[in-house]
Design brief:
Blueprint (H helix, E strand, L loop, with lengths): L1 E6 L4 H13 L2 E7 L18 E5 L14 E4 L6 H4 L4 H22 L2 E7 L26 H21 L3 E6 L2 E2 L10 H10 L4 E4 L5 E2 L2 E2 H13 L8 E3 L5 E2 H12 L5 E4 L14 H7 L7 H16 L4
Parallel strand pairs: 1-2, 1-4, 2-3, 4-5, 5-6, 6-11, 7-10, 8-13
Antiparallel strand pairs: 9-12
Helix pairs in contact: 1-6, 3-4, 5-7, 5-9, 7-9
The structure holds uridine-5'-diphosphate.
The site of uridine-5'-diphosphate has 15 residues, from helix 5 and strand 8.
Length: about 325
């Protein structure tokens, strides 16, 4: 039996990961979250499981656990621009940097393997397309997104220094846009916004002209690759891109969701936030070659499942 610590465990990806880790194997899960963007709602079916323990804690502060930890998945960080920017900006940088430091210390003390959820945002406004892991990125260091982008870049740097200096076993994945059940309806990201707006009969809000692109990965596919990455050979540290390589404009996404939910909805346009990347698509050759992984769920199918989830959630049925 392994004891696995998941930070950000009540968040969107973290809660899906906790459920997989408990279901698939004989694991004990310690779920750590400050519930800033996460919620116990996301893990409510696990709360009575004796193999699941929830600790309310902010990883900006050191964490001492009085039992041996085998693996750490460091997922804690607000990930939606409205949640991580503005008044939360300094908190976001601290979560990325001090959180990584504290979790690396815990990994070092326990001789545990540790996986960092890095991000496609390390590429900033990418000048090469699709993005490969060797691309060093084009991040504005002083912009409104930099608390997240630079925070995550610094966390990668810390991971590799702990690996080089102390031999900590590290795994770094760069997660591209992900969606699916357990997203917060008020999260502010595009998939949750469009679906919730559509289900409520509201206008769909496109920022900019909708020509910017993103690649959307269904959360089950992402959880598959996260678990595979943790199980990979120790000498494979990454960074490795994890995401779906299907690329869509935001306008195409709006039209697809409108088509699925309510054809009469209007699309309205708002200004594009600054530093919003104009294009993004992962090159996933490395994940395919090293982890024998590629996403299985197409956008249309994943959206159907996500619409079903939000429909129940907004009606208060779950
Ligand atoms: N976006 C949009 N309408 C919304 C929310 C987001 O047009 O209601 C745009 C946003 O400006 C960005 C894209 O959708 O270009 C993806 O935004 P999201 O916040 O989901 O992810 P990120 O920008 O971090 O990739």
């Amino acid at each position: 039996m392994k004891t696995i610590l998941v930070t950000g465990g009540t968040g969107f990806i973290g809660s899906n990961l906790c459920k997989r880790l408990i279901k698939d194997e004989n694991n004990r899960i310690i779920c750590v979250d400050n519930n800033y963007t996460g919620s116990l709602f996301n893990v409510k079916e696990l709360l009575n499981d004796s193999r699941f323990k929830f600790i309310e804690h902010d990883i900006i502060e050191p964490l001492d656990i009085d039992e041996k930890i085998d693996e750490i998945y460091n997922l804690a960080c607000p990930a939606s621009p409205p949640a991580y920017q503005g008044e939360k900006a300094i908190f976001t940088t601290k979560t990325c940097v001090l959180g990584a430091l504290n979790m690396l210390e815990l990994a070092k003390k326990n001789n545990a393997k540790i996986l960092q959820s890095s991000t496609s945002e390390v590429y900033g406004e990418p000048l090469i397309h699709p993005q490969v892991e060797t691309y060093r990125g084009n991040v504005n260091p002083i912009g409104i997104r930099s608390c997240y982008d630079e925070g995550k870049r610094c966390a990668e740097s810390l991971f590799f220094d702990y690996h080089r200096l102390y031999g900590v076993k590290i795994k770094v994945i760069r997660i591209f846009n992900t969606y699916g059940p357990m997203m917060d309806p008020n999260d502010g990201r595009v998939v949750s916004n469009f679906i919730c707006q559509a289900l409520r009969g509201e206008d769909l809000t496109i920022y900019g002209d909708g020509s910017q692109t993103r690649s959307f990965c269904y959360v089950d596919d992402l959880v598959d690759v996260i678990v595979k990455m943790m199980a990979s050979e120790d000498d494979f540290t990454g960074p490795v891109n994890t995401g779906n390589s299907g690329e869509f404009t935001i306008k195409e996404l709006a039209e697809l969701i409108r088509e699925k939910v309510n054809k009469d909805l209007r699309i309205v346009y708002f200004p594009l936030p600054s530093d919003d990347p104009t294009q993004r698509r992962p090159d996933i050759s490395l994940a395919k070659a090293k982890l024998n992984w590629e996403p299985k769920i197409k956008l249309s199918e994943g959206l159907d499942k996500t619409i079903e989830y939000f429909d129940k959630k907004l009606k208060g049925e779950i």
